[in-house]
Design a protein that fits this description.
single chain; 124 residues; Cytochrome Bc1 Complex, Chain D, domain 2; 6 helices; 54% helix
Length: 124
């Protein structure tokens, strides 16, 4: 009996300790640029790398953040009927994450050419 009690207590204390370490991270309202870039990677399948794909799927790079955020929130709330998967995708993000994604894509130059990026110096 005592042995089971000690095991249960150990599991409970471990869980509480881990929860105490994780909860402050979950409570943060701001996302790092690395976190946002990671989330934005999931948009590349349809919108292209950096949101600049030209075609039937809208280019989202360079659009005003307020417009992008409003559209993402509308998808999340099922307020847009002419959508394929964006309503389901948007529901997987918090409002703060959608705002961060909108800000991320609005900061990207839609006319930028990947080929014009500076070449890296050769390593010695």
């Amino acid at each position: 009996m005592k042995r089971n009690f000690y095991k249960a207590t150990t599991v409970l204390l471990s869980t509480l300790t881990l929860s105490a370490a994780v909860l402050p991270c979950l409570a943060e309202d701001t996302l790092s640029s690395e976190q946002t870039a990671l989330m934005a990677g999931s948009c590349a399948n349809c919108h292209g790398t950096d949101g600049r794909l030209v075609g039937s799927v809208p280019t989202i790079a360079g659009r005003p953040a307020a417009v992008l955020e409003a559209r993402l929130l509308a998808f999340k709330r099922d307020e847009i009927s002419d959508t394929t998967v964006m309503d389901r995708i948007a529901k997987g993000f918090t409002n703060a994450e959608l705002a961060a994604l909108a800000s991320h894509f609005s900061a990207i130059d839609p006319q930028a050419d990947d080929a014009t990026e500076t070449e890296q110096e050769p390593q010695e």
